[in-house]
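Thread: flavin-adenine dinucleotide complex, take 2
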Amino acid sequence: MQRHRVAVIGAGFGGLFAIRALRNAPVDITLINGTAYHLFQPLLYQVATGVLSEGEIAPPIREVLKRQDNVDVKLGWAQHVDTENKVVSVSGPGIDYTVEYDTLIVAAGASQSYFGNDQFNDYAPGMKSIDDALELRAKIFGAFEIADLQTDPEAQERWLTFVVVGAGPTGVEMAGQIAELAHRNLPGQYKHIDPRKARIILVDAVGAVLNTFGDHLSTRALRQLHLMGVEVELNTKVVDVDLNGIEVESERGHQRIPSMTKVWAAGVAAPPLARQLAESAGAETDRAGRVLVQPDLTIPGHPEIFVLGDMMNLAGPDGRPLPGVAQVAIQGGKYAADVIERRLRRKPEPKPFKYFDKGSMATISRFSAVASVGKFRLSGFFAWLMWLAVHVFYLVGFKNRFTTVLHWAVSFLGRGRSERVATEQQAFARRAMKHYGDPYQLVRAAHEADAAGQINPAPTDADVSAGMPAEKHPAGVAAPEKATVAPEKATVGK
Ligand SMILES: Cc1cc2nc3c(=O)[nH]c(=O)nc-3n(C[C@H](O)[C@H](O)[C@H](O)COP(=O)(O)OP(=O)(O)OC[C@H]3O[C@@H](n4cnc5c(N)ncnc54)[C@H](O)[C@@H]3O)c2cc1C
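Output below.
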């Protein structure tokens, strides 16, 4: 007899904890995830600044779940949920497929929001993926290298100016780490620049750093940032971003900050799948595109569909939506698994989901963090130790915990950075990939050709560099216009 089928979209905190909690349930689980790894997003900024390797924060999903027999892991991006027929359509690497379900858990997280200015993304990467972090690493370390080659002081200053947009935890942590690089790790390694002269500017439209941590910790964090040499521009709105700089507006008027390295750490929005799911299920979404769920985390009229974590909107005790943090997703995942198992074992449903706030924390520099736990407000070294313990605890896998602690020792006790390798592909591939569109288009074309008995219809590298137009190519795949990436590279040395 066929067992109850649970499809899970997303192997982030919500999806993974739901699956683990279902390990002994009489269900067959299909996990659909866009990447082959689980991503521990809270430490992305350390990958971007060379403290950790990407592998330490992104263990392979198959390895994480290798002892759980009731899961089938499938690589691909869920595109569409047909809530009537209970089918998920997935775009895999060069192959499309569908997954049928009896119960669906959707935990596809959030994407970066540029508040309607998606073009900013070309010059100010966000902090949501390994690609983002590696691109930023290449840009940050590359900026010091290129600055060292400049003879024009203005160009040198532009390369040594780093702007971080968004003074929430991610922005504060990022600005703090760049400041540590400039003031602690890199000095003494360049002949023509003094890295300590780098400007690190943290910009936010609101009037406080770490706004959600309350006045006391916000003031502490601001003071620590100032001590580290970070310039904090509050009540300042970003109005434009281009290759050479960023334009801001504040009560002091319009200002241009020349800077080659910008980081976007402001704003999140639910992925497009959330809206599609809501439309199909007749559910509502909020302004950020998150799906409004009932207290049992299901969509109204669809007890078989759970939406978790960053993608859901559920009001907390204060009437405001629960925050987009890991614990909301983890606890939601465990709760959904409990509901599913109880239903199958014909036990009464549990009480409505209640989020237990374990507190929040952010690091500002080595040995300095702020933490808000219940009524307690902590800052400084003790808060940093707490941060350390919590992050080691929630990292997935013993190997990752071990090597992460080693790398932290290198960076925090010594003056090194273990992961400074940055390649040109990391720095420039985003623009090339945008130009190509679906990177698996070539694989699809090859599959179609194979089915049609053709041999090699996909464009070769020679076609691509010759700029062969799509309509002329047998597979109909557009070759890129030439020199899409080159102009940015060409400006590098100016
Ligand atoms: C830079 C950064 C720092 C953060 N720091 C902290 C912190 O210090 N503390 C804290 O509590 N929280 C932090 N957060 C927030 C925390 O990471 C999220 O709240 C949490 O990851 C949400 O879990 P989730 O399961 O909803 O989504 P995610 O963990 O984002 O997982 C979503 C998964 O879905 C996959 N996916 C997305 N779309 C699709 C699709 N269409 N098809 C298939 N798969 C898909 C993704 O590949 C991903 O694996 C941080 C977030 C970021 C970005």
